[in-house]
Amino acid sequence: MKAIRRFTVRAVLPDTLSALEEIAGNLRWSWHEPTKELFARISPELWNEVEHDPIALLGSVDPARLAELAADQGYVDWANHVREELRAYLREPRWYQSLDGSAPKSIAYFSPEFGIASTLPQYSGGLGILAGDHLKAASDLGAPLVAVGLFYRSGYFSQAITPDGWQLESYPALDPDGLPLSVLRDPDGAPVQITLALPSGVLRARVWQAAVGRVTLLLLDTDIPENDDSLRSVTDRLYGGGGEHRLLQELLLGIGGVRAVKAWAALTGAPAAEVFHTNEGHAGFLGLERISDLIGEGLTFDEALQVVRAGTVFTTHTPVPAGIDRFDRPLVERYFSTALLPGVEPAEVLALGAEDYPGGSDAVFNMAVMGLRLGQHANGVSRLHGEVSRQMFGGLFPGFDSPEVPIDSVTNGVHAQTWTDPMLRALAVERLGTDDTTHADWGNAEAVSDLDLWSVRTRMREQLVKDARHRVAAAWEAQNPGGIAPVWISDLLDPNVLTIGFARRVPTYKRLTLMLHDPERLKNILLHPERPVQFVIAGKSHPADDEGKRLIQKLVQFASEPEIRSRMVFLPDYDIGMAQLLYPGTDVWLNNPLRPLEACGTSGMKAALNGALNLSILDGWWNEFYDGENGWAIPSADAAGDGAERDALEAEAMYDLIEHQIAPRFYDRDRDGVPQTWVGQIRHTLATLSSPLSAERMVREYVERLYMPAAANEKRLSADDYLAARELAAWKARVRSAWPGVNVAHVDAGGLDAVPQVGDHLRVRALVHLNGLRPEDVEVQLIYGRALDGEDLSGVHYERLELDRAVPGADPSVAQEFSGGVTLTWAGSFGYTVRVVPVNDLLLGAAELGLVAAA
Ligand SMILES: *Cc1c(COP(=O)(O)O)cnc(C)c1O
After folding, report:
1. Digit-coded pLDDT (tens) for 139-193
2. Nearest to 580 by CA among 241, 180, 8, 119
3. Which atom number of ligand 1 is nearest to the Cα of residue 604?
4. What catalytic reaction does the record list (predicted)?
5. Are strands 215-221 and 158-161 parallel, antiparallel or unpaired?
């Protein structure tokens, strides 16, 4: 029988245990080991059964057990102590409080998904986990974030695998009452309602609040009786429907999200957000809501745009076109033709998302393009991804070389306390005197011996093997109710065998099945008599992606061959809970994307934090951090003729590394059974990578390089009733209209002998038409570098040319002369040119307006 309705009855705790309710209500328990121990003590078996969910535990524990604990003074004191510790954590000054007063008082962080704990499955993969880690690190640093997302009734989906390897999706509904969430309410107790005026009627949403340490997460939920059925389902699933459903979710997230932040701030007295950060383009409509507000204060669209741009940070997360939302323009136009955003015209909205550059489509509205136009600060998520993004979006800045495209990069990081195994943390506490594994002195071999490190690594591998057997048995039982699981499942994997892990979403570019390229060779690797290898694999394919499901099927079918099935296992339903055992339990973390499509990749970082070594294509973060000792680089066959040849070359290189380097080193043991060289690499990995890979490092960078400058810029533009914003809008309009007439009419050079040599001075004089602009509106630049093949300059330098002679009293549109020079400092080829760009100290760089006039 299926219930037609379901709800959760919250437990009533004995008075002396009231601390437990307060502690369970803040998701900090998800990364605070002492708090988890407090809950586990209530009933270790039940704690495992409810998958470490305090609210489920309190809801299902026998009241007699609670009564017993309530009478146990030792336990009551412990609970009260943990509560005091939590309260202190929420209040005390942390890193952010040491910054000067210009640091923003509040930062609103928007994301379509958040991966915080398994109990709140509101994520599909890396983007969501990253958002969760961002909030946790912000909390630890004391950064005043308020986060905004949607509450998806069914989260992403649960994955099961049929006996012949096909992915099945199911969508169990979540019950918010059973989660650490509370409804945002007015002072009179009524739930706050966010409304959006849509063409089909008013969309309403209630707002759930979750406490993530010091950070409040607001989740909008349309599943309320005030909406009709079609509108109720707007927040049914993460990335569920296509076009219009997705657009509705994004309108709600962006526009509704800003409204929710305002309502929350008004109710709690929190300061207004000074910076808005959109994690990927999905939340980009947030900028339009803010523009609409400013128009309400008397600004024009263009003036408001200056203010909003200054205070918005846009992070792009993927160079894969399918990862970027593009909507049909007529659809977007229809939604903005109603009263959705007072003062904002549909044409103005459409222009922001227009692909009006060579190669763009005039039929679509591109959310990433809008993200760049609405966010003055933009970044990719690793250095290489920054470069790739500057090329990818170069069309928006015609005439500029890609290094000048104003997209920076902040390399992702992962939240160490969430992702470091408690056993490794305990070792750090015991031997190095700190539970902060990112700053522990792992190089200290006196304090932590090779044997210590190796024993912990072995125990973590054992833990994974046990978990994998358990999961495979449970999946088998689910498919064969009442049956007895076959014995081979209890012998699955071997706790002493070199273990390679591979888990992630399954889009084609991640190449789940590259390892199957040569099945015979792989079998020989797995079954090697002295140096066997085993693989633990997991991953979900997007429900609409049959190609991804076929890859999973191919892998599952291979892994079920009796000959190798105990050496290769696919674990269904990859999630945070599985990941937390998987990364620590693997010796080698494998990643073989098609370079450069992996923007950063974070699973390898989580593995490294646990002392696993990486085996990866030099893409994303690995391109930046591989140092020859912390793992292995699979060379990219970029020059291969076609995809198949490339796969073949890269797969062969991977097999070679496993066979000739990795396995021999893993099995090269000393008298104590310790692989010394290998452990040396583990130690090196922990000592050198833990700190730079941490989310704490990442959030500090966001604060210092993006949030603080963004807040400062927005403040300047807003001062004195938006005086600077009005001036900037007028200036841009003037520059844009004059620009077609701006040009470099003539360039003279002098100062060089017939045969120029190092040390000579090149003098350049340029005649420039300003078409009515003032000389201070522009910069005339001498650009020089090596002229290699053809005329392309490489290693370019910029030298400002100074105004020579403003012709007194003359028509400003007459030609002006600028001059300057450069001393030749290298021998060999030399090339130069002259260009004019607009300058204004409120711009971030020469390319921001996308205007240039070159000689
Ligand atoms: C870290 C993580 C991911 C993302 O891994 P990538 O290497 O970035 O693809 C996806 N899912 C889960 C459960 C994770 O923990």
Report:
1. 999 999 999 999 999 999 999 999 999 999 999 999 998 999 999 999 999 999 9
2. 119
3. 7
4. [(1->4)-alpha-D-glucosyl](n) + phosphate = [(1->4)-alpha-D-glucosyl](n-1) + alpha-D-glucose 1-phosphate
5. unpaired
pLDDT at residue 807, as a whole number: 63
CA of 793 to the centre of ligand 1 (A): 40
Q: Euclidean distance between the first and final Cα of the chain, in Å?
A: 78
Distance CA 305, CA 298 (A): 13
Q: Indicate the Cα dihedral angle 121, 122, 124, 129, nearest 10°.
A: -90
> Is ligand 1 within 6 A of the CB of residue 710?
no
DSSP state of 36: H
Q: In whole angstroms, what is the distance from residue 457 CA to residue 8 CA? A: 40
SS3 550: helix
Q: How confident is the model at residue 750, as a pLDDT?
A: 86
Quick check: CB of 121 below 6 Å from ligand 1?
no
Q: 274 CB less than 6 Å from ligand 1?
A: no
Ligand 1 pocket: which of 129, 582, 619 to mutate (most atoms within 8 A of CB): 129
What pLDDT, on a 0 to 100 scale, did the predictor assign at position 806?
A: 62
Radius of gyration from C-alpha coordinates of the chain: 29
The pLDDT of residue 789 is 74
Kindly give the distance from the C-alpha atom of residue 654 to the centroid of ligand 1, in angstroms, as a whole number.
21
For residue 789 the two structure tokens come to: 């093949």
601 lines ligand 1 (CB under 6 A): yes
The tokens describing 63, both together, are 């009241």
* Spatial CB neighbours of 770, under 8 Å, sequence gap ≥ 6: 738, 742, 777, 778, 812, 813, 816
Which regions in the chain score pLDDT beneath 50? none
Q: Which of 118, 602, 609, 610 to mutate to test the pocket of ligand 1 (most atoms within 8 A of CB)?
A: 602
CB neighbour list of residue 784: distance below 8 Å, 6 or more residues apart: 762, 793, 796, 797, 799, 822, 830, 831, 832, 833
So what's the pLDDT on residue 9?
66
pTM above 0.85, yes or no: yes
Q: Which domains does the chain have, with CATH numbers?
A: 15-91 (no CATH), 102-413+702-719 (3.40.50.2000), 445-689 (3.40.50.2000), 742-854 (2.60.40)
Write the CB contacts of 499 (distance below 8 Å, at least 6 apart in sequence).
461, 464, 493, 533, 534, 535, 536, 585, 586, 587, 588
Residues contacting residue 619 through CB under 8 Å, at least 6 positions apart: 384, 591, 593, 595, 596, 597, 598, 601, 636
Predicted local distance difference test score (pLDDT) of residue 308 = 98
Enter the DSSP assignment of 72: -
